[in-house]
Design brief:
about 350 residues, mainly alpha, 2 domains, two-stranded antiparallel ribbon, 14 helices, elongated, Potassium channel domain-containing protein, transmembrane helix, membrane
Length: about 350
């Protein structure tokens, strides 16, 4: 390969890596194309392995693996790009003692330690221009790696907040209909307001956190009480039932209901970028059988209004599947610990 070709390939690879790193860490719009591709590929490997082994706990390690792979990918791209640039001229790197041009392996070694330090002194730039460039990549490399590592630190705090929010939603009820039945006082669902108050802010924050830290979506929890997506789905379905089937006079106040619904919409929008298109997904059936059995008077929803929610409910189903859950699982018990007797809450 001719030397100018090395320079062009190196510059392109370096620009691509720097752009992906800066876009992912600073732009609150999701992951860069490289980071997104690597994350999605690793997640698919984990989900296929989980299904083959019929063990969801396999997915618990996906988040950490994706973080490590993302950091490694950025370092490798920066390292490879700079190495190609140093391959573009024979005198770019020389032995400090003999001034003999460095070999390929020696250039890889030279670039590696220059990206993180000022070097060991056994090799140097062969000309004044390459000496200056070596100093530049030492500083820029250290800055880029520091940015990458610093970007990952807040993720642990964000994961903790997500678990806390999930438990809060799960405590409302085991399913969409149970969330409503537990807050039915015989006349209306006004008691649900106490659960919805203050819920819009953490939901909206989670949506923005998923945009700022796309890797958050890959931190999987096999326990339903701390798994956010199944609980988000149950809550969203509960609000859908309220809006479609329950007369306005029997619902929680609009001042409480609408902000939570809008926050849920924002959260779902933040996940569209990493989820396969839901167009081919079959819309789940509307189920209000438990409410009907309880004797609650429901209204017949308009077909036109129901059709407008088709995309939303398809997206929810697609998100659940992508996250390793089946649709019906969001309606199963969330708290199954043997530390408490669940029968104590009945009656």
């Amino acid at each position: 390969m001719e030397e100018p070709t090395y320079l062009i390939l190196g510059v392109v690879l370096l620009c691509l890596g720097v752009y992906d790193l800066l876009y992912t860490t600073f732009a609150p719009r999701g992951a860069g194309i490289i980071t997104g591709t690597v994350s999605n590929l690793i997640w698919r490997v984990y989900t296929k392995t989980s299904r083959m082994m019929d063990n969801r706990k396999v997915l618990n390690g996906a988040g950490i693996m994706i973080i490590m792979a993302t950091l490694a990918t950025w370092v490798i791209i920066l390292w490879a790009g700079q190495t190609l640039i140093y391959m573009s001229q024979a005198e770019a790197v020389v032995n400090s003692t003999t001034n003999v041009p460095a070999t390929l392996k020696e250039r890889i070694y030279f670039v590696g330690y220059n990206l993180s330090t000022m070097g060991n002194g056994d090799f140097k730039g062969g000309t004044e221009e390459w000496l200056i460039y070596s100093a530049i990549i030492s500083f820029s490399g250290l800055i880029m790696i520091t940015i990458a590592i610093t970007y990952m630190v807040p993720i642990l705090s964000a994961v903790t907040e997500r678990r806390s929010l999930s438990v809060r939603i799960a405590s409302i009820g085991d399913s969409a209909q149970q969330m409503l039945l537990k807050n039915w006082n015989g006349r209306d669902f006004k008691a649900l307001e106490s659960h919805l108050n203050g819920l819009a802010q953490p939901l909206a924050k989670q949506g923005q956190m998923h945009l700022a830290y796309p890797v958050l979506h890959y931190f999987y929890h096999s326990e339903k009480n701390v798994a956010l997506l199944p609980n988000i789905t149950a809550l969203d379905e509960a609000l859908t039932i309220l809006l479609l089937y329950v007369p306005a006079a029997s619902r929680p106040s609009s001042q409480t209901l609408i902000p939570v619904r809008n926050a849920l919409t924002t959260f779902l929008s933040s996940l569209i970028a990493i989820t396969p298109s839901p167009e081919t997904t079959e819309e789940p059936e509307h189920d209000v059988s438990e409410l009907e059995e309880a004797g609650i008077l429901l209204q017949r929803p308009e077909t036109e209004v129901m059709s407008k929610l088709t995309k939303r409910r398809k997206l929810l189903r697609s998100l659940l599947h992508f996250d390793g859950w089946d649709w019906n699982e969001h309606n199963t018990p969330k708290f199954t610990s043997d530390l408490d007797a669940q029968d104590i809450f009945s009656g």
